[in-house]
Amino acid sequence: MSEIRMLRTFLAIEKHGTMAAAADRMALTHAAVGAQMRTLERVCRRQLFDRSGRSIQLNDAGRSIIEQARAVVAAYDSLLRGVADETRIEGSITIGSTVSSMGFLAANVIRLKATYPGLNVRLAHGDSVELERKVRAGEIDAAVIVSEPRATTLPESWERLYDEPLVLLVNPAAAPVDVPLNALLKRNPFIGFEAASLTGRHVASVLRRLRVEVTPILEMNSIAAIADLVRQNVGLSIVPRLRHAAWDDDPLLSVRPIPGAAWRRHIGWYEFGRQPLATAIVKNQLLAALAD
Question: According to CATH, what is the number of the domain 165-264?
């Protein structure tokens, strides 16, 4: 439900102080957070933020609905738990995910087992096109996939969970802190992301904007495999920054932002037709985890 997601974002702004901080916690762009809040203001028929200063702050009207927003989100979460308790959620569902999002999905499915011991969630992996097809064919119940599927007349649903910006991934041994981005790209072997993919096309666009010509020593469509090669100092790469990978804590990886790289890879929840209640419980768990 998009209204619940907006309220979660609103509460994240109140909790963390700024839209920028809330965007980071909710894994959204600053623009996406701003758009959600403008929509929330239209729904509430009042301004909730003071935009007159250098930073956007909650105004009196915004502060006045905080407790109500908390109550609505809590009631929604309680509703799902209550319905689940009454129906004694049991049985099996299958949720798919791309490999890069599988850790996030699996960790939250494990957390659900404590609350719903009778629920068996089987996990399936694949690329986004394959998972989208399996959801539509009824082979799996839902999936976490990259990018919104093509619009159809079918009763389908896609909801953005989080975004991943493009970054430079390099082994610290090959990346002295005083060496500019362009120089690093020119002096080190380049590991390319699959050129035919959406991500690969945006990586190529970034390289053109930076006016850097590279000849990839190889191309891959697995971010995890690329990261492993970077750890081995085979080369550097431009890849989406995985939301749930602990790259900052890895001594063999250095993550550098790419100035002006506005494109982000969208990760979302995809389902088709009438779904078991258990799929809503899994999706709500993911949304709640992102909001914490």
Answer: 3.40.190.290
d(CA 20, CA 54): 13
Domain boundaries 2-71, CATH class = mainly alpha
The per-residue pLDDT string of the chain (292 residues; one tens digit each, 9 = 90 and over) reads 567 778 888 888 888 888 888 887 776 778 888 888 888 898 888 899 988 877 788 899 999 988 888 888 877 776 666 555 544 566 788 999 999 999 999 999 998 888 888 888 999 999 998 999 999 888 999 999 998 766 554 556 888 889 999 999 999 999 887 888 999 999 999 999 999 888 999 999 999 999 999 989 999 989 999 999 999 999 999 999 998 888 999 999 999 999 888 889 999 999 887 667 778 888 888 888 887 6
The Cα–Cα gap between 4 and 284 comes to: 10
291 close to 70: Cβ distance less than 8 angstroms:
no
Q: Give me the count of residues in the chain.
A: 292
Q: Can you give the pTM of this predicted structure?
A: 0.68
Classify domain 89-162+266-291 by CATH architecture. 3-Layer(aba) Sandwich (3.40)
**Considering only CA atoms, which of 27, 142, 152, 7 is closest in space to residue 72?**
7
Total Cβ atoms within 10 A of residue 82: 11
